Amino acid sequence: MAEPDSGLLAAPEPEPDAEIRAERAHLATARAALRAMRADVLSTETALGDIVGDKVTNEVLRRARARRAEELADLPDVPLFFGRLDFEPGVVADPDPDTGPATEPDRLHIGRRHVHDEHGTPLVLDWRAPISVAFYRATPESPMGVRVRRRYGFGPDAELTAFEDEHLAGPGGDGGGRAGELLAAEIERPRSGPMRDIVATIQPEQDDLVRAPLEQTLCVQGAPGTGKTAVGLHRIAYLLYHERQRLSRGGVAIVGPNRSFLSYIRNVLPALGEVDVTQTTVDDLLGHVEVRGTDSETAARVKGDARMAKVIRRDLWSLPHPPAEPVVVRRGARRWRLYPDELTDLLAELRTRGVSYGAGRELLAHRIAHAVLSRMESAGEVCDDRTHNQVRRDRAVRAAVTEMWPKADPVRLVFGLLTDPERLARAAGGLLSAEEQAEVRLPGRPRGPKSARWSIADLALIDEAAGLIERPPALGHIVVDEAQDLSPMQARAVARRAGTGSLTVLGDIAQATTPWAAPDWPSLLAHLGKPDARLAVLDRGFRVPAQIIDYAARLLPGIAPGLGAPVAVRRSAGSLRITDCPPADVTDTLIHACRTELAGVGSIGLIAADAELPALHAALLAAGLPAADLTERADALETERLVCVPATLAKGLEFDAVIVAEPARIVAAETRGLHRLYVVLTRAVSTLHVVHSEPLPEILRAG
Ligand SMILES: Nc1ncnc2c1ncn2[C@@H]1O[C@H](COP(=O)(O)OP(=O)(O)OP(=O)(O)O)[C@@H](O)[C@H]1O
After folding, report:
1. Does the interface predicted TM-score (ipTM) exceed 0.85?
2. Which of 89, 214, 432, 598 has its CA 20 to 30 A from that of 529?
3. Is 405 in the pocket of ligand 1 (CB under 6 A)?
4. For the domain 560-701, what is the CATH superfamily, name and number?
5. Among 392, 386, 336, 385, which residue's Cα sits nearest to residue 364?
């Protein structure tokens, strides 16, 4: 992808032009080698055609080749490498048997993917390879065998225009050299369009998390803009590189807060060569029914509470019951009879087995068949597997199973529970108060599941029931972003899909806006089934300049007293502006602010309380400004510079310039309005302009 010109002069080393020329030549050689690698893959396909084996094998091979070719595609605006490590002689290569130990430094270029020449000699090393770790972690105190670390700057069209060297060890290695300017340029780069990868500038504390072992669940608490999302995405790419086989069986997913967020991050993994990762919201992950309803905050809190899992379990497991009549199986002239007390014993034993409801049902048929066969054998009949299967499928046995262990459908089950007060009272006795039971009932008088106005919280209830009936297949690894907003019931749904695999859990307790949000990480991790997760904290803020973060952090004592503010990596004079104007002037002031920002570069987000947004959007259009409404177009961030963002969709996003309308209304719109405002105030990379006529929240004024 094109890096804007960093503005750096070419390196101040002797003969900078020669150095740059040499590096450009290496880049060209690497590009040619990559083209050859790709051509190789494609020609294998042509040469082998379909003659290898059966249809299925051929199809699998064809897909694998197509995928590999896709991975090897050279994106013209993405530089093939972004750094170089000069290792002390002998650190990387073994001594040559003819010439002895090496005397020249081993030089490795680091890039987004591995590239080698026709002899197999690496021209670019993948950033995920073990040896590349030194690029991110070596310091003068612990150089990891590295003499010089070089970073490159690129102009438009991915042309190599600059480099900076850090001398970490060896001759001239005083820890000096120029470091950090390219990083600073990258961080301050005006933002436009969707999120990009940060592979060239991952910081040591981030790298530690990206490369953490797959086995242990990792939970990252991080203030706004500390790179949690970036870490999660790069971690996926890293894990897939090292554990591809293990992970590809179940697949890998990243779960984000909403579709506009997914649209914002969707190019990052493909740019890192990973095209097979599921990117989804929690609601889409659960699916089951169409969401057309909303819950009151109280209802949402009760429905999201883990007690609901017990209610549903009780209701489901109240279905199996002993039969009133014996089961009579006819075989030829004979009849085989199982009496209710025997059947009741079978039922009781199965209930204690800990199997899923659906599996229990299957097992019951087997148990009945087994009992009938025992009787037949005692009477001298010869039985085998065929007899067992015939008896199991016998009409009388099937009828008995259906009566004793009724089929259950998750949607119907939750529908029944939430529309039948007596049934709910039976299942929720001692768990939910009468008021809570009244809260969770479905609105209106829906005649059936299809006409019910299901809410987002209901999805997790249905999923709980579905998981009790049949356990869902487990994914290889799941990254959950903005996890602080998960309800305990949603967390359980994620846990079911993780199975015994690990999770990467990312979030910020201070940005928790849902009524059911977790008060702390240990309680959420318990619902996610990973109480032993490693908890890490990121606190260096890469997005928001200090002036803005200091302003937003005034809210922290009120919303998350235990959490500190992030330490911004930069200050930026004039980045914060607050305009207090008469009510009649607010819209014009906002239009003027948008117009001013449009004259510059970078993306602009106008953020307002959800209810205010349509009118503001219309006013911008009427004033002739090219503004898109994110509510209407989830992909607006990809195509438009000026985007109107309802406060509830701002989470996870960032804009070069942010204009916030009437903070008091954002706060008033919901119970956790101050948390929402904290999210909104921390979206800006360069400037934040707050426009208001109503008094700002007390806590914000107080700072
Ligand atoms: N090491 C880095 N080098 C360059 N840019 C970085 C680095 N780390 C983070 N950033 C940038 O900082 C911005 C914020 O990162 P990201 O969105 O991952 O933060 P976050 O912690 O998820 O924020 P939030 O909690 O607000 O959603 C992004 O533009 C990201 O590219």
Report:
1. yes
2. 432
3. no
4. P-loop containing nucleotide triphosphate hydrolases (3.40.50.300)
5. 392
